């Protein structure tokens, strides 16, 4: 494996970890960066498989809370409702993702102009929602009713279009459905675990025949970089959005989307 490819994998892994839990679309950023770097992964598997690093980041940061929920499951109806709520929210993306997998990977992933447009549109949506004077009804993810979880899960399906942002779609959906900013971001964290684990497993099975040992160093490099960067982001994000909201991420999307379109039309 060429040294340049390992360096590119490192950069893309850091980009994945830094953006996965921000409402800016990690997939959109990676695909655009890969396009301009000339980075080509086997079956576009790299972009999905390195998300395992981000999943492990969530598990490490929330290990104590997850363990407490697991221990409380037999005796605490609140813990059982929370786990069921995450599964209910995950279900729509699991079904649609499996049915539309090939179209997403072969068409949507290969359309950088669409990614830029979705970054821009999502930026305007996030900016508008962040400025709304919404009165939250829910402040703790443990208290989300199942109906709310399902609605958030339906919003997550919008992220099948790269550039939309999985976390952005779930956070916007949660805010519009009556949650506060901190719990909306935290629910997005927890929902990421089954969603990304499912995407990882499904993509690995779909690409197991075309991946080779030569792909492992690149994927491993991206995985480790994504894990380290994601741990940093998860630790700071909840406190930041509680104080400042999501406007900075909306403006970031707009800048990246406009610069991406400009580059595409000028250098290709």
From TrEMBL:
Bilayer disposition of the protein: Multi-pass membrane protein
Main location: membrane
Pfam families: BacA (PF02673)
InterPro entries xrefs: UppP (IPR003824)
Superkingdom: Bacteria
Location within or outside the cell: Cell membrane
Record flagged with keyword Transmembrane: yes
E.C. designation(s): 3.6.1.27
Transmembrane domains' residue ranges: 45-62, 82-100, 112-129, 187-205, 217-238, 250-267
Molecular function terms from GO: undecaprenyl-diphosphatase activity
GO biological process entries: cell wall organization; peptidoglycan biosynthetic process; regulation of cell shape; response to antibiotic
One GO CC term on file: plasma membrane
UniProt keyword annotation of Protein biosynthesis present: no
Protein keywords: Antibiotic resistance, Cell membrane, Cell shape, Cell wall biogenesis/degradation, Hydrolase, Membrane, Peptidoglycan synthesis, Transmembrane, Transmembrane helix
Reaction(s) this enzyme catalyzes, per UniProt: di-trans,octa-cis-undecaprenyl diphosphate + H2O = di-trans,octa-cis-undecaprenyl phosphate + phosphate + H(+)
PANTHER family on file: UNDECAPRENYL-DIPHOSPHATASE
NCBIfam families: PRK00281.1-2, PRK00281.1-4, undec_PP_bacA
Protein function: Catalyzes the dephosphorylation of undecaprenyl diphosphate (UPP). Confers resistance to bacitracin.
Family (UniProt): Belongs to the UppP family.
Extra remark beyond the main annotation: Bacitracin is thought to be involved in the inhibition of peptidoglycan synthesis by sequestering undecaprenyl diphosphate, thereby reducing the pool of lipid carrier available.
Protein name: Undecaprenyl-diphosphatase
Gene: uppP
